[in-house]
Amino acid sequence: MSDRADHRDRLRALEFDAFVAGAGGRLLHTATLLTGEPPQPPGAYPRAEHLLHAALSRTYAEWDRLHGGDPYDLSRRELALRFAREARRHQRPRGGLLERLTPVERLVLVLRMYEEVGEEQTAALLGLPGDRVRAVCARAVAALRSAGRRRTAPPAGGRTAGAGRRGAA
To answer: Which pTM does this prediction carry?
Structure first.
């Protein structure tokens, strides 16, 4: 009997290792976007890695109960829920494009735009009404667009670098 249990445990570990090898990079990127950690060398995202390890631990614990379910979906859901519970720790990101967003805006934007989770599914996952998810996503996109416009705004004179050359030719 113990040989059968050992074989089942080894098979479970191999399946989980294969899942992490295939999906771990994308999940780490999702965690990095959520925590707002600035780009650093690989292996240097402590908050995102902690969030991911906690989510993957939960996925591993539930592995036998998946019964053909999607482990990626479970891991992403756990990542989002853990981030939402710990959002006060992630209130002030240290850099990156999403630094201007609140944790809820980051969470909704990452789920909707990066992970391509549907509006209804995002609303159900976060326990929010669909119109609230839509409003938060729109506000986050608008904040990013206005930040992008400020970065690429022309100099105070209103001209771009090549504007004066056109008339001189």
So the answer is: 0.70
